[in-house]
Amino acid sequence: MGVRTNSYFIFSLLFLFFTFNLPIISHGSDTISANQSLSGDQTLVSANGTFKLGFYNQPGNSSNYYICIVYNKVSLRTIAWIANRDKPISDKNSAVLKIMDGNLVLLNESQIIWSTYQNSAASSSVVAVLGDDGNLVVKDGFNSTQPIWQSFDFPTNTWLPGGKIAYNKRTKTHQNLTSWKNSEDPSRGLFSLSLIAETKEYVISWNGSEQYWTGGSWNGQIFTLVPEMSQNYIYNFTYVDNENESYFTYSLYNKTIISRFVMDVSGQITQQTWLETTGQWNLFWSKPREQCKVYAFCGHLGLAIRLHCPSCGNTSVANQESTDKFYEYPNMGLPNNSLSVASSSTTGCASSCLNNCNCTAYSYDNNGCSIWIGELVNLQLSPNDGTGRTLYLRLAASEFSKGKENKGIIIGAVAGSVAVVLLLGLVFIIIWKRQRSVVVEGGDLFSLLDHRLEKNADEEELRRIARVACWCIQDDENHRPTMGQVVQILEGVLEVNPPRVPRSLQAFVENPEHIVFFTDLSSGQSSQPQSADHSTASIRASSTSSTMISKS
């Protein structure tokens, strides 16, 4: 095995030296010139050491390698830009990045994997330089100030300070900030941010077509639907509109701060700042704020509803025993791609759906009859503003056999959500009372477990539970997570920062005998308050400022 490995390594070296006949780039340089190449573990490093370029893979997919620009001063490997995001290579030792015919080109065994594809006459003097701002620039000679090509014009999922997301008025093309396919696959995902130049607003789209969020129009200082931008003590925002292009850019007042915008796999645009003290990216804000506003994020339906194969044949509404039936969902934001059907009544609309084996739902109101064929995408609850409509979802007749059981499930789900929050709060009270040194870091988390578990638990999951429990009972309601965020935190989609200790819990720990809970008077007992050891309820106090979550 060792002989085969050594032979392959020697072959790779021979491939680099003799096939390309190029000198290897010196480690730590920020430039590739026309007579140099980069391969294997070699890297470019920007002059001040902030960014680094080289071959990298993803921890969950070690077989695929990419030419990446990464943060060099961030302890958590974070990719800022990828050249070949849609065409990975399998062996970094047989691939080479070099200047060829005036372009920066990635070759894998003589095959072009990626190129800047620019027409440049001065091929012998062309160089590629990695800047301190994370911009990879191809230019004609070291002293040239005019780039032939630059990575800032071709962003992937990360928008760095000094970069721009623009609309080119001459070519009528958009620059898009496009999410990864998933957390382990950097190829183009479904979510993208782009600029609508006519209205001076940024929008997020799903699959390049469905726009589900807008930042609002630029008012000279901020985008109107992103009020967080008014807190500009960190960022300097600029909107440029000229005859050639329209774009938005930003810079940092304090150049030592490491910050970025990311079009996340969650379908949200996020602004993040690196905190070396915690070793993680801190979420400054994300839009849309609520996960449920992301188009088709939950896939088919967007709600946890079980479907079946529709029954066909004699499917009139009158045939009640064997046909499918419809479950009523009031106050819904209806999905797209409906078909209008001529019908003068709810019954007629239902029959039209039943007569089509592929119909999954219908809606009937003053606008007439609408039916949906196939998947229902982006089905959401509507706010109580009068815009919601009633959707009738097609289900098998057997689903209705237990009558009120379905509604009981829905009510139970809502009650369960409330119970989870209360339970998390009570769990944290117990945790805090048993071990105060642990929801501020550094203590023995396993000491909180029931001794019968013999410390058989995942430490990271236990930390998440303790943290989110404390966030759920923060003094200020605005700092408490939504149930959707709680689920995401517990699933590991969102990172949760250490919370501040609520003042109510602090008082409980310091003087538990003086804490008064509300007493249930419905049983006819005395109205005298009980101590914390003899009753249950909730405590509320006021205000502290915190930041709860950061993206993983």
TrEMBL record:
It is found in: Cell membrane. GO terms for cellular component: plasma membrane. The chain crosses the membrane at residues 409-432. It holds the Pfam family S_locus_glycop. One of its GO terms (molecular function) is protein serine/threonine kinase activity. It comes from the Eukaryota. SMART domains: B_lectin, PAN_AP. Its EC number is 2.7.11.1. The keyword Membrane applies. Residues 312-396 form the Apple domain. PROSITE patterns: BULB_LECTIN, PAN. It is a single-pass type I membrane protein. GO terms for biological process: recognition of pollen. It catalyses: L-threonyl-[protein] + ATP = O-phospho-L-threonyl-[protein] + ADP + H(+); L-seryl-[protein] + ATP = O-phospho-L-seryl-[protein] + ADP + H(+). Residues 535-552 have a biased composition (Low complexity). Residues 29-151 form the Bulb-type lectin domain. InterPro entries: Bulb-type_lectin_dom, Bulb-type_lectin_dom_sf, Pan_app, S_locus_glycoprot_dom. Residues 1-28 form the signal peptide. Residues 526-552 are annotated as: Disordered. PANTHER family: BULB-TYPE LECTIN DOMAIN-CONTAINING PROTEIN, OS01G0958200 PROTEIN. This is non-specific serine/threonine protein kinase.
